[in-house]
Amino acid sequence: MATLNVKNLPDALYRKLKARAKRERRSVAQEVTVLLTEALEPAAPRSILELRGLGKELWRGVDAVDHVASERTTWR
Questions:
Q1: How many C-beta neighbours within 10 Å does residue 20 have?
Q2: 73: pLDDT confidence band, cut at 50, 70 and 90?
Q3: pTM of the model
Q4: Are the C-beta atoms of residues 28 and 18 closer than 8 Å to each other?
Q5: What is the mean pLDDT of residues 45-52?
Q6: Would you state the pLDDT for residue 32?
Q7: Does 3 fall in a domain?
Q8: How many C-beta atoms surround the C-beta of residue 66 within 10 A?
Q9: How many whole angstroms from its chain centre is CA 53?
Q10: What are the φ and ψ backbone dihedral angles of 75, each rounded to 5 degrees?
Q11: Does the residue 71 lie in any domain?
Q12: Three-class SS state of 32
């Protein structure tokens, strides 16, 4: 596994990073890894069906792309 050294990191930024790591119950190195992963890896696509509440049962079996297209033509 690679090692990353960061030079000239501003003290204020390091304090924020350290505080965030503490809140998340991670080491500073683990927090940096999480932040870099979130920033550099593409997010997994999400579905409206993953939402809690909001009437998701009404969307089951509905193609969102077709629905949006039909709504756009309706409101023109």
A1: 15
A2: confident
A3: 0.57
A4: yes
A5: 71
A6: 96
A7: no
A8: 9
A9: 20
A10: -95, 10
A11: yes
A12: helix
